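Put briefly, the fold is written as integer tokens. The lines below illustrate.
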Amino acid sequence: MAIKKFQKELKAGEAFFITNFSNIQYFSHFTGTKGQIFVTAKKAYLLTDFRYIRVAKKVLPKEIALLQTKKSIIEELNAIIKKEKIKTVYFESTDLKFSSFEALKKNLDAKLQPKREAAEKFRVFKTPEELKLLIKAQRIAEKVFIEVRKNLKAGKTEEQLAWEIEKLGHEFGADTISFPPIVGFGPNSGSPHHQNSNKKLKKGDMVLIDMGMKYKGYCSDMTRMIFTKKPTDLEAKIYNTVLDAQELAIKKLKAGVKGSTADAWSRDLITKAGYGETFGHSLGHGIGLDVHELPYLSTGFDKPIPEGTIVTVEPGIYLENSFGVRIEDMVLVKRNNVFNLTNIPKRLQDSIFPLS
């Protein structure tokens, strides 16, 4: 059980206050909107109010005690602190609101100490059960993409297509979307995180679709390009350069490779092709309960990528006021290679779907 592993890292007199919703779900299976986990070396507690007690009882593992907050959260924490003689309470510095921090600092009977990614690091390795959920989320996304691509018609707007993606996701079994879909027609594909607009699709437009579905809390993420006519020489060149950069990283990636090294493989290829300045984001990111989580394939991530991690690989080239190309897959990192979880074909010829 993950919470037991967490407890082993705490010394007597130490505790950790978990407030991040994804971390709470990971350790306790609790998904209510009001709850915190307080972990000590001896015990772990889920604190929530009357509204969620029945829900929590159904999902909470036996390693975590359920504590109904009848008083203020700080009074409940101080009772545990006194009972277990806690001297230091670590908190999630990237999550806790400043107002909550101020209240804790003023009233908590222990020293507060910030800590980054202490809980998130346990989520890096994906269990077989998590892997099944992530694959299911991706299969739903693929089914949605195929349906959306089949129904592409001139005159549809980016916003309409984004809504179709969300609606079909629900119909095909997703809990919700992993993130608002990014749909870019023509020149809008050249903006990496384009905000969907009322721009209408016309014959000849290149289409970028970046989308993902969430299934039982776990996310998928995929980007594909659609050409509504035969690509120009430049479009084909850019597309194949991005595809080569992605396939190079996928081919070489394995457990133990630094995230910065993987990023450099794709970045160097794109740079040698003359488009280095147009690849302005990182190569990829971990994915699980959050669509962006540890670890990262980026210039600043010098840590090795562990076996059992799922990451995206998504190089891109973006030509301002012209068009852009991004291709994104999810891969499972294994000891000597990776296993690609994304099944949608991505060769250039597989991406051409002329509008009638």
Q: What stands out?
A: The mean pLDDT is 95.
